[in-house]
Design goal:
Shape: globular
Helix content: 25-40%
Bound molecules: adenosine-5'-diphosphate
Low-confidence stretches: 9-25, 87-102
Distance between the termini: 33 Å
Organism: Penicillium argentinense
Structural class: alpha+beta
Radius of gyration: 20 Å
Largest sheet: 6 strands, antiparallel
Oligomer: single chain
Strand content: 5-15%
Protein name: Protein kinase domain-containing protein
Length: 347
């Protein structure tokens, strides 16, 4: 099965686990209503369970006044309201503040970075506040699951769908990199889908600002998800990593959308890392695979999966690749949410 578990330096020795969490966090039912702190009397009514990560549980939250529905990410943080407000309004590059625990420190970085992002293909952050010993993060609702769910159901996607998703993803990554942000955990499970089946990049839990070479040198923590991890993150002697780690992940995502499995998939983490370091991946034989994978797609994947990070293309180079112009460059203007389950028929 395709797995997308996260690694950080601190948990590397203990094997793959997600962000620090207590399973108890997920057991507590949320309150039925949560007050909206900036609007006296206004409140969110907590609705359907949307999903859980290693760190957060997510529910629908509806504002009583206008019926607008959001995704509410709930994290047991015990973070005082004042501190939370400081975090979200802080203008310093993240990572320089103090916090009580590592978990809060990581969460603060996530909120600081995410709260400053505004882009059509990035999950919109609205606000974060503390209520009854939890932190609530109010996000744009993505009601159609993730690309991971879609690929699991469909096995693989058609070329027009892949083109559309890649173009949207490149736009989001260009925006992040222009602002010196490296997402560092791009994977199909973090590409959410809005009601129009547009990509929304989410989960900024491992994002970092990398402003200079010096910053890059300091960025040598092992982070990411084994299947999507770039070789320079594995090899600390290379002296850190830059935004280019995201381009490697784009290559992995691109391969996985076309084939249904990530290129370096293996039984153990060690085997995955060995394949990453030696750039060992195999395309399915045409006869074994229902979708034809053109040479242009293979060429683009190999450009992104370059062991030399500086040689990987930028998002602008990726969308200029001939892959996007094949067969008249058919890119669907709209996708029907039914394509989460069924292969679309292109007319
Ligand atoms: P964590 O930070 O713990 O990894 P995630 O950001 O991955 O948490 O969110 C956990 C789950 O909540 C996701 O897998 C997804 O099912 C759901 N989720 C998160 N954000 C949204 C959103 N904006 N819209 C809909 N569901 C969401």
């Amino acid at each position: 099965p395709v797995t997308e578990r996260k690694m950080t330096d601190r948990n590397a020795a203990a094997g793959p686990v997600q962000k620090s969490s207590s399973s108890k966090n997920h057991a507590d039912p949320p309150p039925a209503f949560v007050p909206e702190p900036e609007d006296g009397g206004e409140r969110y009514s907590i609705g359907a369970f949307l999903g859980k990560g290693g760190f957060a549980v997510c529910y629908e939250g509806t504002l009583a006044r206008n019926g607008k529905v959001f995704a509410m990410k709930v994290v047991k943080s015990q973070m005082p309201q004042k501190k939370m407000e400081e975090k979200v309004s802080a203008t310093d590059p993240p990572g320089h503040g103090r916090s009580h625990t590592l978990t809060l420190f990581e969460f603060r970085t996530e909120l600081q970075i995410h709260s400053k992002m505004r882009h059509p293909f990035i999950v919109q952050f609205y606000r974060a506040f503390a209520f009854e010993k939890s932190t609530y993060v109010v996000l744009e609702l993505c009601p159609n699951g993730s690309v991971m769910d879609m690929v699991k159901k469909r096995r693989s996607l058609t070329l027009p769908e892949v083109r559309r998703f890649m173009i949207q993803l490149c736009a989001a990554v260009k925006y992040l990199h222009k602002r010196f942000v490296a997402h560092r955990d791009l994977k199909m499970g973090n590409l959410f889908l809005d009601h129009n089946m547009n990509i929304k990049v989410g989960d900024f839990g491992l994002a970092a600002m990398i402003l200079s070479d010096k910053d890059a040198k300091r960025r040598n923590t092992l982070c990411g998800t084994p299947n999507y991890i770039a070789p320079e993150i594995l090899d600390k002697s290379k002296g850190g990593h830059t935004q280019k780690v995201d381009i490697w992940s784009l290559g992995v995502i691109f391969f996985a959308m076309l084939t249904g499995y990530p290129p370096f998939q293996s039984k153990t983490q060690e085997e995955i890392y060995k394949k990453v370091r030696t750039l060992t991946y195999v395309w399915p034989k045409d006869s074994d695979h229902s979708n034809f994978i053109p040479e242009e797609a293979k060429d683009l994947v190999s450009a992104c999966l370059n062991l030399v990070d500086e040689e990987r293309p930028d998002p602008d180079d990726i969308v200029e690749h001939p892959f996007f112009n094949m067969y008249d460059g058919c890119i669907p203007r709209q996708l029907d949410p039914a394509c989460r389950f069924n292969k679309p028929i292109w007319l």
